[in-house]
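2 proteins. here.
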Amino acid sequence: MPIWLIPISLFWILAAVYFGGFNISIVGGSGFRQVLGLLVTYLLFLVAWGLLRWALGHLGENFLLKGVAPTLITMLALPLVGRAGFGVLGVRIHRGGAAAH
C-alpha cells in the first residue's frame, strides 16, 4: 500500500520543522523519554491518519478523500498529537523559548 508512504515520509519532515523550527520548548524527562515521546507521537500521527483515512474512505473511493484530506488534517493536528505523544511520558511542550516553571 504505497499510500502509507505519504504520512510516513511527511511526519519526519513536519516533526523537524515543528519541534526544531517553531518557538517551542520541550520540558521535563530525560533525553531517552523525549526520544520515546517522539516515537509515541509518530505512532499517534499514523493512527490518526489511518482512522481519518478509514472514516473518509466510507464517503467515497476518491484519492482526495482517502489520501490528501487525512494527510492535511493530521498535518494541521501535529501540535495536538505532539502534546499527547509527549504527555504520555510526562514530558511537556511549552510555547516560547523559556518554559514557565
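next one coming up
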Amino acid sequence: MWIKSGRNWLWLLLFGSLWGMVEVGGGEVLFRAGVPQASVFLTAWALFVLAAARGILNRPGTSSAVGALAALYKLANAAPFYCHLLGIFFLGLVFDVFASLLLKRGRKAGWRRASLSGALSAYTGNALFAVLMTFVVRYKYWVGDGLIKFSRHILISGSYTALAACLMVPLGLRVGESGGAFVLRRPRTAMAGAAALTLVAWTLGRFIA
C-alpha cells in the first residue's frame, strides 16, 4: 500500500510543506496589505499543489494527507489559529473526494474533469469553512453581520476561487504528471531533490512567520 512507502510520504511531505509555506508567508503578506479576496489566492495555490501531488501519486487519501501536513506546517511555524488549520485540512479532504471520483487512477484526466474537480473543491471547501466559523465556532466577525459574510464567502469568494481552480488544477495536474515521469526515469535524483526542497521549506518557515 502507498501509505507504507517512505518515498511516497516524502512526496506528500514536500507538497504539504510547499502549501503550508505559502499559507504562512504569503498569507501574512496578503492580509497585512489588505488585498481584497486574499483567501482566493491562497486557495488557488493550494489547489495547484494538491493537483500536482495527485499527478505524481493519484490515490485516494493522498490529498487528505497533503492537507494534514500543510496544517502541521502552519501549526509549527505560525500562531495556532485552529479554525484556519481545519480549513486547510477540509480543503485537502474535499479535493481528495472529488479527485478520487473524477481523476481516475492510471488514466490521464482531461481538462474538463480536472477543472470540475477544482471548482467543486473550491465551493465545498469554502462552504465547510463558512459553516464552521458561523455555526460551530460562532466567531464574532462571522456572526456579527448575520449571514452576509457567510453568503459572500461561499458565493463570491467561492466563485472567484472556482474560476481560478479551473486553470490551476489542470495546470497542477500536468506539472505533477511531468514530475512523475521524471521520478520514474531518475528516481534517486528526484528523491534527493524532494528531500532538499522539503528541508528548505521547513528552514524558511522559521524565518517567514
